[in-house]
Structure formats: structure tokens, C-alpha cells
Amino acid sequence: MWKLFRVYRSSLILLSALLLGSVLGLWLPDVAIKLKPIGQIFLNLLFMIIVPLVAVSVMSSIARMTDLKKLGAILISIMAVSVVMAVIPSVAMVFLAQAFDPAQGVTLDLTQSVDNVAGNMDFVSLLTTNDFVGLLSKSNILALIIMSVISGIAIGQSGVDGIKVADLLDSLNTVIMKIIGILMYLAPVGLGAYFAATMASQDAQLMTTFARAVGLFFIATAIYLTLGSTFYAWLGGGNKGVKVFWQHMLVPAVTALGTSSSLATLPVTIQSANKMGLKEQIAEISLPLLVNLNKGGAAMITALKIVFIYSLLGLEFSADVFMITILISVLSAFVIGGVPGGAFLGEIFIVTTLGLPMEVIPILVVLGALTDAASTVINVVHDLTATQIVERINGKHYQQTAQ
């Protein structure tokens, strides 16, 4: 029990701080409002680090991936499978959340003006900027990610000079992760204070919406874990693939639940892949990449967060918003999910891209913390099914040498 507590200690401390902040905001609103500057300072510190965090982390990851350019076919299939396995759950989650609205008419009353992008979404401005300086703004995260991916590919193709730049990026990434680690010590106080100020002017019914949202996510997770996994395993290996998957998925799933980390579960996942009879060459190439790229659970919770917040704010969830929601969900799984230590990056990504008020960040953090374990299980289990599919696509090119 103590070991399990240590794994989830940060999440439990953060949730306790947010719960305390909500109680303070509802019972002593005058006091809670005065705490808002404390939370504002913490969020501003995160906003200041987000641009170098995204740029350095994404460029570093892509630059290392392109070292596998000789394995282009299998790398392309891994990326394609990861994208598809992020789109499917995010689309399904959007429709499910709209059909069973967890907000149930409860409205978040914010004095800050909300930029309702539903009626006027400029995809050109979202995906690009007309000046390099624009990439240094937190409001242009999508454009920054696109340029960082292109830059990472260029670094990986630049030979010896590219290796020097990649090494420098790795060193910068280590320093940035240390900065993030320092800032995270302030998270319970900063987010707790900000949440207290937010709740000071809200109805107590707002708290019940969290339970509905989390319950909806757990139901969706159970359905996707059973039906989705079976379907993917069938695609990867037919009826035999389904059988061996369900025979060997339990240990990685339980390990993921206990560690709340796809990376920490990787050795167990590789072991299970071997027991499933997957080709060793493909498993050893695919699984380390899928740990960072294939995060269907992250895509699901991102989609739920956006639909939930739009409902709470009373904003129209238009076709344009649907499209950008799927894009954000895929990028959260495909890129953001691979950023080590990028705590709260997904929440900031959502808020800055959609022009939402900062008051919603603690709400998004609550949903993320409560659903983190279930999301990790989805991520890990579907690394196995994704490997099955990748093997079916590329298996003939990696035949075992006859003994």
C-alpha cells in the first residue's frame, strides 16, 4: 500500500490541495479571492517555460527518431498506427461526452472574457505564424510544434553537425526538465490558491460535474479496453492474435496501474510481447517508440476535457471546434505525451490554443489527475495491439533467421 501511495503521491497531494482550495472558495470566498495572485504567479511561471519546453523537447525527440531512417517503412507504420489509434478514441469520446453531457447544465461563471473560437476559427493562424517571433508566444503552440518537428527532421538529416546539435538539445532538455521539477514543487500551493479563487464565485454543484465526467471516462475506458483492444488485436493477428493478446495483457495492465507510467512498464510490455510470439526485431524497435507516440488514453482524456470545458462555459461546440479538438487530442498523444516531465503542458496547450480563460486550468488538472491511471493502462495495453498491427504490416521484411 505504501509503495502504491508513493507512486501516486504527487497526484494525491495535488488533488488534496485542489479539494482544500474548493472548500475554502465555497466557505470563505472573500479570503479565497485574495489568494488569486499566488496562483497567477505559478501559472505565469509555467507559461514562461512552455515555449522552450515544447521546442527543445520535440526537436530532441524527432532528431533521435530520425536515427532510424534506415528503418523507414517500419517507422512510418508505427507513426501511422499511433495517429489512427489516437483519432479513433478521441472522436468516440467527443460523441460520447456530447451525448451524455457531464456538465448537465451547470455553468462556470467567469468574469474574464472568453474568446469563443467556435464562430471564427482561423486554421492558418493556428498552424502557422508570419514571423519567427510569433513562435515565441504561448498562443502559437501548434505552429511551434509544427516548426519543431520540421527542425527535428532537419537536425536528424544533418550528419555530424546534426549530432552536435542533437547532443546540445539533449543537454538543454535536461536543464528544462529540472526547471519543471522545481516549478512542480509549487503546484499544490499555486493551483490550490487559483482554484480557491475560481470556486469563490461558483455554485457548489460544480464539484458534482467532476464525478460525472470521471465516471463517463471510466465507462468509456472499460468499453475501449475490451472492444477496442479486441478489434486491434484481430487486425494484428486475426482470431489467434485476439487470443494471445488477452492471455498476456494482464501483467502490463496491472503494472501500468501500479506505476502510472508507460515508460516504467516498458520492460514488462516487451516481455509480454515476446510471450505473445511477436517478432523480437519488430517488438524491440516498435515498443520503445510506441511508449512515446501511441497514447490513446491521453487522446481520450484530452477530448473529454475540451468538450467538458466548452459545456461548462456555455460555448458552442461547432464543427470547427470539433476538428481542432481532434487535432489537439492527437498532438497531445503523439507529441505532448512524449515530453518527459511536461506536467500541465496538455492543459496549457488546450487553453492557449482555444483562447480559453486561465481559470479553467485547475479544472482540467483535476480531470487529468483523476483519470491518469486509467489513461496509462489504455496507453500500455494498446502498445501491444499496435505492435501486433505493425508486425502484420512489416513482418515479412523481418523474418527470423532459420536456425
Automatic annotation (TrEMBL):
Residue spans crossing the bilayer: 41-62, 74-100, 141-163, 175-196, 216-237, 249-270, 296-315, 322-342, 348-370
MF terms in GO: symporter activity
Compartments where located: Cell membrane
Membrane topology according to the record: Multi-pass membrane protein
Regions annotated as coiled coil: none
GO CC annotations, alphabetized: plasma membrane
UniProtKB keywords: Cell membrane, Membrane, Transmembrane, Transmembrane helix, Transport
Predominant localisation class: membrane
A Pfam match: SDF
GO biological process: dicarboxylic acid transport
InterPro entries named among the record's database cross-references: Na-dicarboxylate_symporter, Na:dicarbo_symporter_sf
Protein name: Dicarboxylate/amino acid:cation symporter
